[in-house]
Amino acid sequence: MAPTLPNAGALAGCKVIDLSRVLGGPYCTQILADHGADVLKIEPPGGDETRGWGPPFLGDTASYFIGVNRNKEGMTLDLSQPSGQELLRHLLADADVLVENFKPGTLEKWGLGYDALNEAFPKLIHCRVSGFGSDGPLGGLPGYDACAQAMCGLMSVNGDADGDATRVGLPVVDMVTGLNAAVAILLALNERGRSGLGQFLDITLYDCALSLLHPHAANYFYSGNVPKRSGNAHPNIAPYETLPTASGPIFLAVGNNRQFALLAQTLNAPAMATDTRYASNADRLQHRQALRDDLSALLADQDAAALSDRLLRAGVPAAAVQTVDQALAHPHTKHRGMVLEHGEYRGVGSPIKLSRTPASLRKLPPALAPLSHQE
């Protein structure tokens, strides 16, 4: 993703009204905007609350906001007032997509719910991101990423076996909800090409958190055993975990017998590949601790970065554990165009690579505009 002006992008001509705040919705609309959609981010008079979620700040805007709001135009609007509602309707008249994450019932209270908007704008695709949806036992209740992680089992399988249930160290539920919202919008746009009609997209943190439970849910369905925490060790594969080296931890992700034989060969321990305890993945799982002990002894004098490079080139998935700064500075990160720089702006590039219509940086995140004039 180059910080240059533009090819038009795969979504050129698609107009998106973005009423969402915080992360799930804005992440979704940044995906659309990166690929050419004309996204108008409409904030309440006080702005998206993440503008203040710092330090660090660039000027008076928190890095949190900057990270998920590029390629958007901005304006403020008070939707609690009739004049703001009227202006939003005017903006929706030629829009393709509306993305919002209001608590279910809020837009309905203002006469801007799906039924009312669908009657006025039958081609409009209305995507709502919410915690739990509008109905059911938890319908209409507020939701946040960490609460979804706790409620939907993610924390219960994350952390050391003898430690506490632990939040995943990034807002994975919010971000996968944004991804699913973007996928849903593209599906609805494709279907609208046949039917000429919009529809309502109901994307919740709760559903998206549950969707992340593979392989734990599948294991539970077919064994009846409640999944437990196992640290960095995989419940179904061995060796698939971090192990110590002389310079720091390395992650080995050995998914089949061929890779295990290559691992043994690269470590100059060919006998390990013919050890009956390690003959198959099931055998390696049964003797996981012995395998870990044997590998730890072989790795004790190794450099993690150099070894991971040797293993990768031999066909064995492996990686030294890097810090965020190391990952962002890696030569392959630069090669893949995954860090954008333009003046003071720095951001993570789009992972979605299209050959003819790649993502591009066209607009920096919008400053907070004064309250838009409402007649």
UniProtKB/TrEMBL annotation:
Pfam families: CoA_transf_3. Its EC number is 2.8.3.-. Signal peptide: none annotated. GO terms for molecular function: transferase activity. It is an enzyme of class 2 (transferase). It comes from the Bacteria. InterPro entries: CoA-transferase_III_domain, CoA-Trfase_fam_III, CoA-Trfase_III_dom3_sf, CoA-Trfase_III_dom_1_sf. Keywords: Transferase. PANTHER family: SUCCINATE--HYDROXYMETHYLGLUTARATE COA-TRANSFERASE. This is CoA transferase. The lineage of its organism: Bacteria, Pseudomonadati, Pseudomonadota, Betaproteobacteria, Burkholderiales.
